[in-house]
């Protein structure tokens, strides 16, 4: 931008259009104001033109009916240039902090919203000509904003992403503000830049450039790993819970296997280590104290039960007489009809009940099918009565208010170890109980029909679960069921008429490719929070997904189909080909260009003309046919990606010709002309031999061509200097001899320039030999770029010496070329270092010219040129010395 007034740093650039459609370039500088390039002329706006500061950080054009409005963010605040005006103005309410990012969005009523990110003053928002401020006082993680991006998803609310210095990324919609920081998996909370892109399947991706954390990618609809500050949590997460504090703010609790209890609230993590009775947390439950405040019950492994209330811990255990076992496996809080809170505690050796300050127990002697209680839930019957369900190590049971009744394991319940339970109410009011087992998949019972088993889902049913070990079941706001398994999270969506059959559902499986820390889930480790996010705990940590912002993949991926003869896999066939009866082996290969969950890509094929050839969906990518009868055929293939999108079929038409002896005229000819038949057979044989010879000839030609190309590449590599990329000494020697002979034949002069880098040893001693190599590369590149003619060549002569051959060039022209390359090297301005007068790297050149004859020694020109270089060195370096064999 030296053309503005002085050389200044450019902080930001923008392009707008003039009213007549001509491009206008705006350049925000550091100290030089705002430059406008229009019709190859620069206009500079500074503080004298209304800008609050000459340090410009952000530019935004807002199209209006009256013309373009230009918003400019400066070091001292915001300014605006209205249509038709020649001065910037600052208006009441404008931010006065440093403004470095600007964005424009529209609300559902198409009202314009201007977002202004400031460094130190928070986020300023202009809507309906009224300014508002979003700072840490309003829940922002930082007042220092660095970048803004606005996104309009294909479905869902418009999103404004704001990057902060120290607070991570803020996701702002019409009804929510969410912070994504290191606690949510972001590698650094210092965000410098944002970019939003879209994949071909419309899946949105936010790219986040951070300080010291590299580049992060946030994909809509993917799981985000949780990382409690200050270290990433890669330990198993066994339990999850959401509570509300006294201000109504959400708090998320994570129970780990060996690292204690974590709580996330108000943007930070709190770690409870050693405070519960054990650091191995098995389950969590929310309760309410008599003062109405939230309490947290913590079930541990071999440490009993902990209660966190009013900032204090209490412990209940087998020793205190509260529990039948200190290994707690399930927790549930319920309410009696009179409002009394009841706590149910499932342990390894029975079920405990805590209510009205009293503990009681249930064991197999009371009707439980097994003493190990793995899961608990409560349902409300049509008569309004509560029913408590317990999943045990050996069966499913419920308490009807008087006694325990066990669900018979057959038919339907494929495994007696019931690890999780969930009640689902469909839109039509139908109630079902979902029971996840340890190895037997998922069983669904009809609560409106005596808990009759409706159907089961496993890894071998249709649809299929990713794994038969079910750890937890939760339901999102859209009525979709999430099953935490040992093979990922399976999401079941009802697509049928709710007829009580497995085919009413389709299953989408999330795995590590979707952002999960690991695919193996933990029993009871899943919740859906009050905002609708789904949280899961796995063997490798916890993750969360927001189904509200999920962008469904509804794009058909490209499908590719190729056909080749079985006898020659290198030959590619075209649709409509005729296959002879002797070469009717045809192989079809196909691929779907889907790069997400490729292991779930499926193909279906059909050969029209061959009855019963429609295949099921498989992972096969190749189909071949070896013994087709004569006739016309059409091969079809469909591709289906992981999201279930099915591509349009591709078709390949071909025919299999009948053998000559199966035609009516062949029969007649063979009967009448046996001799002619023999001749036809011989001709067919000859054609086959010639075809084979042709293929062999083509193969030999192809291999010969590849060998020639490889040899040519080796020759070229042998002539190149491995460090600088110019010709090496071998290349110089051959070119010099060739040009010497050409000059003898033409009677023309031949000039030679030999130069070396001045004081390269000082440069190496100062910066090291690696930098010395970089210096030689830069010098060689500068010299090669400065040579005026295609026939002029530069080669590395040896060490830091280079040679330039100038055919047909007299002394005067050679000196001009030498001076040009000397200036070119000086122009790259490589600082020399060391205690020498010259500040930058230079070269000294020797120039020699000769009109060679047959009697002359070619080495003579090299010798006198080298002497000219030596003399120029003695005269002080960074100069050109000349020598001549005879007057030229």
Would you write up a description of this structure?
The protein is mostly beta strands and 888 residues long. It contains seven helices and 58 strands. A hairpin with a 2-residue loop joins strand 6 and strand 7. Helix 5 (769-786) packs across helix 6 (811-827). The longest helix is centred in the C-terminal third of the chain and has 46 residues, at 674-719.
Helix-residue proportion: 10-25%
C-alpha termini separation: 47 Å
Low-pLDDT segments, ≥5 res: none
Estimate the strand proportion: 35-45%
Give the neighbour order of strands across the main sheet: 55-56-54-57-58
Q: Give the tally of β-strands.
A: 58
**Shape annotation:** extended
Mean pLDDT, rounded to whole units? 87
List keywords for this structure.
888 residues, mainly beta, five-stranded mixed beta sheet, four-stranded antiparallel beta sheet, 41% strand, extended
In short:
It contains seven helices and 58 strands. The chain is mostly beta strands. The longest helix has 46 residues, at 674-719.
Give the SSE map.
Elements: E1 10-17, E2 23-29, E3 34-38, E4 41-45, E5 56-64, E6 67-74, E7 77-81, E8 98-106, E9 112-119, E10 123-127, E11 130-134, E12 145-151, E13 159-164, E14 169-172, E15 177-180, E16 191-198, E17 204-210, E18 215-219, E19 224-225, E20 237-244, E21 250-256, E22 261-265, E23 268-272, E24 281-288, E25 294-300, E26 305-309, E27 312-316, E28 328-335, E29 341-347, E30 350-355, E31 358-362, E32 373-380, E33 386-392, E34 395-399, E35 404-407, E36 418-425, E37 431-437, E38 442-446, E39 452-457, E40 470-475, E41 481-485, E42 488-494, E43 505-510, E44 521-528, E45 534-538, E46 541-545, E47 559-565, E48 577-579, E49 586-592, E50 602-608, E51 622-625, E52 631-640, E53 650-656, H1 664-672, H2 674-719, H3 729-746, E54 750-757, H4 760-767, H5 769-786, E55 793-798, E56 801-807, H6 811-827, E57 843-850, H7 858-874, E58 880-884
Parallel strand pairs: 48-53, 57-58
Antiparallel strand pairs: 1-2, 2-3, 3-4, 5-6, 6-7, 8-9, 9-10, 10-11, 12-13, 13-14, 14-15, 16-17, 17-18, 19-46, 20-21, 21-22, 22-23, 24-25, 25-26, 26-27, 28-29, 29-30, 30-31, 32-33, 33-34, 34-35, 36-37, 37-38, 38-39, 40-41, 41-42, 42-43, 44-45, 45-46, 47-49, 49-51, 50-52, 52-53, 54-56, 54-57, ...
Helix pairs in contact: 1-2, 4-5, 5-6
């Amino acid at each position: 931008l030296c053309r503005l007034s002085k050389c200044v740093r450019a902080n930001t650039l923008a392009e707008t259009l003039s009213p007549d459609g001509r491009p206008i370039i705006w350049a925000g500088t550091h100290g030089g104001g705002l430059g406008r390039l229009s019709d190859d002329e620069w206009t500079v706006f500074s503080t004298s033109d209304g800008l609050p500061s000459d340090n410009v950080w952000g530019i935004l054009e807002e199209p209006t009916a009256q013309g373009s409005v230009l918003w400019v963010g400066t070091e001292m605040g915001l300014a605006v240039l209205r249509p038709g005006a020649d001065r910037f103005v600052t208006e009441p309410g404008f931010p006065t902090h440093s403004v470095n990012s600007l964005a424009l969005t529209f609300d559902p009523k198409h009202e314009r919203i201007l977002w202004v990110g400031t460094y130190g003053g928070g986020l300023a928002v202009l809507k309906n000509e009224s300014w508002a401020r979003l700072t840490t006082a309003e829940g922002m993680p930082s007042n220092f904003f660095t970048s803004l991006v606005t996104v309009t998803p294909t479905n869902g609310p418009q999103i404004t992403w704001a990057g902060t210095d120290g607070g991570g990324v803020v996701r702002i919609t019409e009804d929510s503000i969410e912070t994504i920081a290191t606690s949510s998996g972001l590698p650094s909370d210092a965000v410098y830049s944002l970019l939003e892109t879209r994949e071909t399947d419309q899946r949105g991706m936010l790219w986040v450039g951070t300080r010291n954390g590299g580049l992060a990618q946030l994909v809509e609809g993917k799981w985000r790993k949780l990382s409690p500050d200050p270290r990433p949590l890669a330990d198993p997460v066994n339990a999850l819970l959401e509570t509300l504090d006294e201000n109504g703010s959400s708090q998320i609790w994570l129970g780990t296997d060996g690292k204690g209890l974590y709580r996330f609230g108000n943007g930070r993590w709190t770690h409870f280590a050693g405070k519960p009775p054990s650091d191995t947390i098995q389950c969590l439950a929310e309760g309410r104290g008599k003062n109405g405040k939230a309490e947290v019950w913590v079930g541990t492994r071999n440490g009993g039960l902990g209660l966190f209330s009013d900032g204090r811990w209490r412990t209940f255990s087998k020793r205190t007489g509260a529990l039948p076992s200190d290994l707690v496996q399930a927790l549930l809080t319920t309410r009696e009809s009179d409002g009394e809170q009841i706590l149910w505690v499932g342990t390894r050796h029975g079920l405990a009940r805590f209510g009205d300050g009293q503990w009681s127990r249930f064991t197999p002697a009371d009707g439980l099918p097994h003493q190990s209680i793995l899961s608990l839930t409560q349902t409300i019957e049509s008569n309004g009565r509560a029913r408590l369900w317990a999943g045990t190590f050996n069966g499913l049971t419920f308490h009807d208010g008087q006694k325990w009744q066990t669900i018979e394991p057959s038919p339907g319940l494929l495994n007696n170890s019931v690890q999780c339970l969930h009640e689902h109410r469909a839109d039509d009011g139908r109630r079902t109980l979902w029971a996840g087992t340890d190895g037997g998949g998922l069983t669904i019972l009809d609560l409106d029909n005596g808990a009759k088993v409706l159907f089961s889902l496993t890894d071998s049913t249709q649809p299929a679960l990713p794994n038969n070990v079910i750890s937890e079941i939760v339901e999102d706001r859209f009525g979709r069921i999430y099953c935490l398994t040992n093979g990922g999270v399976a999401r079941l969506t009802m697509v049928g008429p709710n007829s009580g059959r497995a085919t009413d559902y389709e299953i989408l499986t999330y795995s590590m490719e979707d952002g999960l820390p690991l695919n193996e889930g933990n029993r009871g480790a899943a919740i859906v929070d009050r905002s609708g996010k789904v949280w899961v705990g796995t063997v490798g940590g916890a993750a969360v997904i927001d189904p509200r912002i999920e962008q469904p993949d509804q794009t058909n991926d490209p499908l590719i189909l190729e056909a080749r003869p079985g006898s020659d896999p290198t030959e590619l066939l075209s649709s409509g080909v005729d296959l002879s009866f002797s070469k009717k082996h045809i192989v079809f290969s196909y691929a779907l260009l889907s790069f997400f969950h490729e292991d779930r890509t499926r193909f279906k094929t059909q050969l029209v003309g061959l009855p019963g050839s429609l295949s099921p969906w498989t992972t096969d990518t190749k189909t071949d046919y070896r013994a087709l009868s004569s006739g016309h055929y059409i091969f079809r293939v469909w591709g289906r990606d992981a999201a279930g999108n099915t591509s349009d079929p591709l078709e390949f038409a071909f025919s299999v010709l009948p053998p000559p002896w199966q035609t009516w005229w062949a029969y007649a000819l063979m009967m009448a002309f046996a001799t002619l038949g023999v001749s036809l057979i011989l001709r067919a044989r000859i054609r086959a031999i010639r075809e084979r010879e042709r293929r062999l000839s083509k193969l030999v030609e192809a291999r010969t061509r590849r060998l020639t190309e490889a040899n040519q590449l080796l020759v070229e590599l042998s002539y190149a200097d491995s460090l600088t990329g110019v010709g090496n000494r071998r290349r110089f020697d051959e070119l010099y001899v060739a040009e010497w002979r050409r000059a003898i034949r033409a009677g023309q002069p031949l000039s030679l320039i030999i130069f070396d880098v001045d004081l390269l040893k000082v440069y190496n001693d100062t910066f090291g030999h690696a930098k010395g190599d970089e210096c030689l590369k830069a010098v060689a590149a500068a010299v090669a770029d400065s040579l005026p003619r295609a026939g002029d060549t530069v080669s590395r002569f040896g060490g830091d010496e280079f040679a330039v051959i100038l055919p047909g060039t007299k002394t005067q022209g050679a000196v001009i070329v030498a001076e040009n390359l000397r200036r070119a090297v000086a122009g790259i301005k490589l600082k020399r270092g060391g205690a020498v007068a010259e500040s930058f790297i230079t070269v000294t050149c020797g120039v020699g010219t000769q009109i060679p004859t047959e009697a002359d020694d070619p080495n003579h020109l090299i010798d006198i040129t080298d002497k000219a270089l030596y003399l120029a060195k003695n005269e002080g370096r960074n100069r050109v010395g000349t020598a001549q064999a005879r007057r030229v």
